[in-house]
Amino acid sequence: MPKEDYLLKYLEKLSRVIAAMLGFREKGFPEDGLRLADDAYKELLTFDTEELAIMPVSKFMEIIRKVGYSPTYIEALAQLSHETANTFSAQGNSEHALSFYQKSLQLYYLLNEKDKIFSFERESIISELEKHTK
Known about the structure:
Strand content: under 5%
Number of strands: 0
Shape: globular
Number of helices: 7
Order of helices and strands: HHHHHHH
Structural class: mainly alpha
Largest sheet: none
Radius of gyration: 14 Å
Oligomer: single chain
């Protein structure tokens, strides 16, 4: 039970980070949102945003698959990656934004593999991400 409590608390923390990032981005402080993302990535994946931005998508997905996250974690990571991409885009860093859009898209594809429940919302996000990555 303590492990489940820890996982739940960590997922709640990721949700708060994503919401705070959105708030900072909307208020014109994307760098503050990126600092939050950086901390979350370091804690979850032991990589910072710069390392992840230049990491090939194939290597990133290899790491994610190796860890074997649950669908709930993959979804939270996909949302975090998507918001990171949006934040880099708001900052004018289109190269890093594209990298994170691609990673987010692959995470959503992986989520579709692992979670057999069809989601219209997820498919809408995937369509949006596919437009960003073309």
